[in-house]
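User: Can you help me understand a structure? I only have the sequence.
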Amino acid sequence: MNFLKFFIPFLIVSSVIFQSCGDGTDTAPIEFGYDYFPLEIGKYIEYDVDSVIYDIGAGNNVTIRNNSIQVREEITDSFPDNEGRLVYRIERFERADETQEWRVNDVWTAAVTNRQAERIEENLRFIKMVFPVSDNTNPWDGNKYIDENLVISVAGESIFIFKNWLYEYRTIGESLNVGGFPFDDVVTVYQADEENFIELRESYERYARGIGLVERQMRILDTQCIADCVGQPWEEKAEKGFIVRQTIRDYN
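Assistant: Let's start by predicting it. Here is the structure, written out as tokens:
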């Protein structure tokens, strides 16, 4: 499996529900946050994607390879699935830089229900968000449809990418500048934040209201260097794995 296809993403719709008290007094509207994940035919987002791949070879020599590409995700169609949900088709294009033509590289799908937002990427089904988007929302198993012991090959090395993932909202309504764009209302979803002496699993995504995914970062790194690497940052002691950062560069 090409691990680089594994990152890059977004979704949602908006609705407001009003509740009435028994005395006829209206309460504040319930804010579900569907519009952090908008789904609409014709919508596109482009990203800069920078990656670092660690490859331990013969003699335990580690090779570090850097790569940068641009990715465009465009919603091109919708259709009902076998669960009766409206599913949106996302065509993913790649190019090396602005001098190159976009080429279709893959097709993913996304769907939103009243309870959650899902994406299917490389035939893997992720629950990206649950609703309402709130500080009081409990952490959720965003990878419930994925075996955490699934082995992914990265530079010829086997890695358990999805070990110890547990999704949660870390910040909501934050003002951030991402990719040179100011966004007034951003939610950060941490998907993994675990490490021990030999493994680091860190992954988070940021969604801007009305836009969708604006930033994603993954650090999936392994090492066998323990005693001699105490205090070293993961970027220095990693022997296999990858770092990927995806940042919005254009959208409509």
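Now, to help you interpret it: The first helix runs from residue 234 to 237. The CA atoms of residues 63 and 200 lie 18 Å apart. Let me know which part you'd like to focus on.
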